[in-house]
Amino acid sequence: MEEYHNWQCYGNSHRFSFCQYPFIISIAAKKVIIQRDSEQQMISIARQSLVDKVSRRQKPDMNMLFLNVKVRRTHLVSDSLDELARKKADLKKKLKVTFVGEAGLDMGGLTKEWFLLLIRQIFHPDYGMFTYHKDSQCHWFSSFKCDNYSEFRLVGALMGLAVYNSITLDIRFPPCCYKKLLSPPIVPCDHNALVGICGVTLDDLFQIMPELAHGLSELLSYEGNVEEDFYSTFQVFQEEFGVIKSYNLKPNGDKIPVTNRNRKEYVQLYVDFLLNRSIYKQFAAFYYGFHSVCASYALLLLRPEEVEILVCGSPELDMSALQRSTQYEGYQKTDLTIRYFWDVVLGFSLDLQKKLLHFATGSDRVPVGGMADLNFKISRSETSTNWLPVAHTCFNQLCLPPYKNKKELRQKLIIGISNAEGFGLE
Fold first, then answer.
1. 378 pairs with which residues across the strands?
2. Which of 109, 178, 258, 365 could form a disulfide with 307 if both were Cys (CB 3.0 to 4.6 A apart)?
3. CB-based contacts of 343: which residues, under 8 Å, 6+ apart?
4. For residue 217, what pLDDT is reported?
5. Catalytic: which of 294, 312, 394, 399?
6. Is 394 a catalytic residue?
7. Taking the C-alpha atoms of 232, 235, 241 and 242 in order, what is their torsion angle to the nearest 10 degrees?
8. Is residue 9 within a helix (H) or strand (E), and if so which, with residue range?
9. Model confidence over 118-158: pLDDT tens digits?
10. Are strands 390-392 and 377-380 parallel, antiparallel or unpaired?
């Protein structure tokens, strides 16, 4: 952190700093820098709120130190977006979530569940903001025009909040999205400057729309007469709410035929249209939302693929690594119940392993540092073996009764992890 602060202070001087060469800094170290930077911003913003309150001779309230989000499960998206829109000034405070009608206190677990459920709903095709491409198994921004792009800004803020609060999300954006998110990494002072525009290639399109990209690749390698055989112009067509609309890729594009000589230009303009121009307003709003929370010089240290890892964590589950790093309270790792537990878990399908991780930690993603970073703990529960396991997601803790045999443990564990929404207090 000292190195990072020196770089911030003397960035434009000739003084040496390792931060000038971020490729030699590991992603784990960069995550620490971003976490500490976020914590310091949180403390600074909270302190300023406290000073403002006292200077006005008003009684300080603990709630003013946090970004308090109160939502109903039945109106999750609308409540969440309303709360974030109303509390723009508080986005850089520590996040605390309350589900209306539930007794759970947010020590981190409710926040994880809120993100998980919210992302699941916002990215649902029926919501219309993002299009899911089955071939590439990723989401992309809907190009449909609308009157208000504020919801895209709020989704960007949501993703920024996740990074800012060290939460991993199950978001399936293509790598190109993170390249655009760092274009530029620091929000320009000029409000008219273009943001979220980056150089895109056919390879980027392959990661989102492989079938279309393959067709354009075939066009580039076609050995016949392109103009006579394809009869295309510098114009593209898109369906919007059942209406086919046409867009020129360049001025008077509908009158310019695609030929063997200009087909490279056509493909480049087509890719740029799909990944930059057609979604510019949507992505610009998303960009500003993300950076409204995550504005930090630490982003200058990150490559696009590293931003993706910070946002999404790793989808690769290594339960053997989790077994090696697990801590125990009331159990020894050689106890029969613990041996039953790991025999069962290591034999689970990937889907059940993800459910277990979600049940115990509030997220089915693995953080940047791997399973060891979860600080997973199994505690002995002195309740009846008729009870199901209980999890404290704030502390990544699983409370396990001393089940008598492997069959009973497996049955109770599967019931518990398969019915894991909602919070209560013991």
1. 328, 398
2. 178
3. 406
4. 96
5. 394
6. yes
7. -30
8. helix 2-10
9. 888 888 888 888 999 999 989 999 988 777 788 899 889 88
10. unpaired
